[in-house]
């Protein structure tokens, strides 16, 4: 059975400090036997999307000759671990919130570009990111079939269902989520956030895990406190491992994909699907195609 590790960490505004911390925690996870290791979303810097600033586009880089992707590619090969790595991608005149997948032999398996892009106070992602056009992806890695969505993707059951239809036994979500700005009257969303993903675990009979950041990040007049609560759920929706809102560390769980597949077949969720009735999902208003 492969072992999953989920990393929760705080960030600074210094790229190398964040990369070094990420490398250290990946090594720690591998030393504890982890073979699939998940870091949080955009761990290279503060969550800059709190504000709309032209200068933050300078944080984006192409995949080729990227400042830190090769570091994690070499680390995956050295430690024989699977690493999905979140990064801010520049591709021509487009910018994406992306993820590079490295297999356990260091093979670069390709890029997923975040499909659902949020827009609201403190989370101004539509200013920075083009909507991804890669479609949802499931990666056939050495240690199993893994689907990876990015943060806002985790609220969409369609994303989870498609990745599972493509063969995923494990759904991963690198994340950056926390407090809302003072002018937004909304509750702490961490319970909603977990429940949405637990629903994906139940409906797809698949393991689900999310890696969030922690700490308070202040950029000019903006400030956000990220609420952590990174977790791993089994294929029945039971949370097996979870961190609190302030602890930096690593979660672990052994994954029994064989048992999950047997359970999934027995539940019949995929047997009883009626895709011919789901046409309204292809529309924005439920009617107009």
UniProtKB/TrEMBL annotation:
Pfam families: CN_hydrolase. GO terms for molecular function: N-carbamoylputrescine amidase activity. Keywords: Hydrolase. Signal peptide: none annotated. The keyword Hydrolase applies. One of its GO terms (biological process) is putrescine biosynthetic process from arginine. Residues 2-257 form the CN hydrolase domain. The keyword Hydrolase applies. InterPro entries: Aliph_Amidase/BUP, C-N_Hydrolase, C-N_Hydrolase_sf, N-carbamoylputrescine_amidase. Gene3D superfamilies: Carbon-nitrogen hydrolase (3.60.110.10). Belongs to the carbon-nitrogen hydrolase superfamily. This is Hydrolase. The lineage of its organism: Bacteria, Thermotogati, Deinococcota, Deinococci, Deinococcales.
